[in-house]
């Protein structure tokens, strides 16, 4: 079914979440169908214009996918430097940086950029990223082939890389760059990108980059909010996302369906520990610095947030040994995710050692405790992906400030989480947590260079359009509302 391109995208026109499913899907990706059974009926909808855009994208991807005639021609051009006839295939290649949460957020942003600029989106996955997700596009592949000619440059791409757009702009003007008419360009849009790198987000630079067949993006950021500041993208973005709070939710549901292996891990845990509870509570505990956030400070904070302030969980009555059984007993399942097991142990013991004040039964579960972040480890990434999904299946979510792991969970779940305020000076903050006003992830390191309303350095990019504002947990970051 196709939907009218003319659709205004107003709320009444919005389509249900399951509209993503392809009509002729063979069912090879179980989560694509089965997740509907696990998620509450999503109140988050898809605009018909977005769905149409994605269906067009899928056709375009199929025409230009790896090893198609068009792809082979663009590769020949790239190798020889000689362009014959235009193939109609331009690409964005995404390459990984940092942890899985960062990767998922930057992939979603790079994909959105590809859709808006009519490019084909390919990802460079090493062994640690294989088989986490289903293939998102029907009857084709999003994987960059291993023999892609520029692949050996990807590892070198960092802030100092001489061939990045930012560094080339430092030594050349756009005009001389245009004369060079390059066939590929490296874009460095990570946390330490500088004002030259982020010229990418300026309209005149987009006009130039539009002519380059291959763009290679390395980023660990959710840079989507800055795409909403590029004037020429406004008309499309407004129709794709009449509601700016569900941009990542929409993109994530489309792009990141758990592979069958991940789905097995998600559903077995869910059925064993979460399914039968009346309410599910997700608690994501990310400690960036154990010295600044020692165990007792964070533990006090979690209990202050969940029990005292927000009454998400019942308190315990240490004066009673047992409470009389009640027929309308509520049961709550808490899924804790953390690199450490000590938080889980403490909360589990709290509800074991004493009854709750209202008779509520609280079960506490933790899928894994990996100790430290590993790099290049497939099963480690798999566990992280599974846990992000388990958090997203909860009714209430409590997340840690600054964590992209938490952002992915809230976006997948369509949830506005309670965010644990970052402790300072080893003290439990008061209040302990606050509700996010939007479920969108935060772009931690946005540009400070303003080129939408006129060139200005050190500008406040959170004050330019109403829907791009500062983040609740990271006040120099930008977020969609
Ligand atoms: P961020 O650092 O919190 O923004 O999140 P990232 O996902 O980008 O990087 C942290 C990485 O550390 C994750 O991808 C995991 O590999 C690991 N990690 C951190 N917290 C957890 C957790 O609660 N569970 C699991 N399984 N891994 C975690």
From TrEMBL:
Gene Ontology MF terms in the entry: galactoside 2-alpha-L-fucosyltransferase activity
Record bears the keyword Cell wall biogenesis/degradation: yes
Claim: tRNA-binding is one of the keywords in the record: no
Gene Ontology cellular component terms for the protein in this record: Golgi cisterna membrane
Enzyme Commission identifier(s): 2.4.1.-
The organism's place on the tree of life at top rank: Eukaryota
Membrane topology reported for the UniProt record: Single-pass type II membrane protein
Record family assignment: Belongs to the glycosyltransferase 37 family.
Protein name per its UniProtKB record: Fucosyltransferase
Organism of derivation: Erythroxylum novogranatense
């Amino acid at each position: 079914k196709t939907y009218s391109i003319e659709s205004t995208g107003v709320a009444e026109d919005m389509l249900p979440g399951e509209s993503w499913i392809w009509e002729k899907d063979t069912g090879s990706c179980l989560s694509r169908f089965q997740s509907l059974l696990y998620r509450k009926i999503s109140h988050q909808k898809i605009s018909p214009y977005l769905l149409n855009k994605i269906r067009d994208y899928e056709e375009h991807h199929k025409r230009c996918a790896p090893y198609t005639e068009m792809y082979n021609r663009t590769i020949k051009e790239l190798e020889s430097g000689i362009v014959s006839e235009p193939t109609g295939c331009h690409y964005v290649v995404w390459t990984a940086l940092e942890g899985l949460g960062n990767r998922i957020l930057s992939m979603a942003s790079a994909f959105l950029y590809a859709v808006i600029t009519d490019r084909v989106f390919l990802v460079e996955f090493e062994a640690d990223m294989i088989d986490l997700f289903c293939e998102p596009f029907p009857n084709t592949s999003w994987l960059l082939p291993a023999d892609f000619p520029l692949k050996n440059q990807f590892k070198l791409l960092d802030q100092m890389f001489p061939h990045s757009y930012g560094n080339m702009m430092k030594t050349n003007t756009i005009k001389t760059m245009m004369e060079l008419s390059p066939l590929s360009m490296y874009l460095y849009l990570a946390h330490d990108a500088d004002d030259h790198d982020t010229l990418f987000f300026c309209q005149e630079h987009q006009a130039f980059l539009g002519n380059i067949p291959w763009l290679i993006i390395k980023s660990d950021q959710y840079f989507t909010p800055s795409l909403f500041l590029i004037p020429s993208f406004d008309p499309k973005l407004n129709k794709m996302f009449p509601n700016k709070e569900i941009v990542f939710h929409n993109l994530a549901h489309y792009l990141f369906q758990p592979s069958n292996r991940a789905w097995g891990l998600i559903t077995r845990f869910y059925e064993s520990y979460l399914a039968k509870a009346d309410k599910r509570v997700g608690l994501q505990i990310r400690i960036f610095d154990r010295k600044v956030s020692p165990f007792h400070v964070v533990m006090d904070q979690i209990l202050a947030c969940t029990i005292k302030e927000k009454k998400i969980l019942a308190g315990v009555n240490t004066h009673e040994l047992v409470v009389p059984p009640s027929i309308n007993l509520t049961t709550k399942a808490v899924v804790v995710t953390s690199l450490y097991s000590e938080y889980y142990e403490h909360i589990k013991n709290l509800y074991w050692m004493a009854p709750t004040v209202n008779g509520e039964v609280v079960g506490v579960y933790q899928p894994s405790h990996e100790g430290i972040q590993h790099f290049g480890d497939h099963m480690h990434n798999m566990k992280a992906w599974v846990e992000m999904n388990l958090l997203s299946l909860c009714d209430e979510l409590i997340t840690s400030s600054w964590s992209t792991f938490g952002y992915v969970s809230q976006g997948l779940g369509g949830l506005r989480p309670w965010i644990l305020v970052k402790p300072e000076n080893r003290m439990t903050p008061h209040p302990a947590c606050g509700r996010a006003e939007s479920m969108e992830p935060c772009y931690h390191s946005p540009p400070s260079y303003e080129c939408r309303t006129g060139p200005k350095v050190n500008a406040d990019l959170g004050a330019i359009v109403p829907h791009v504002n500062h983040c609740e947990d990271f006040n120099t970051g930008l977020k969609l509302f």
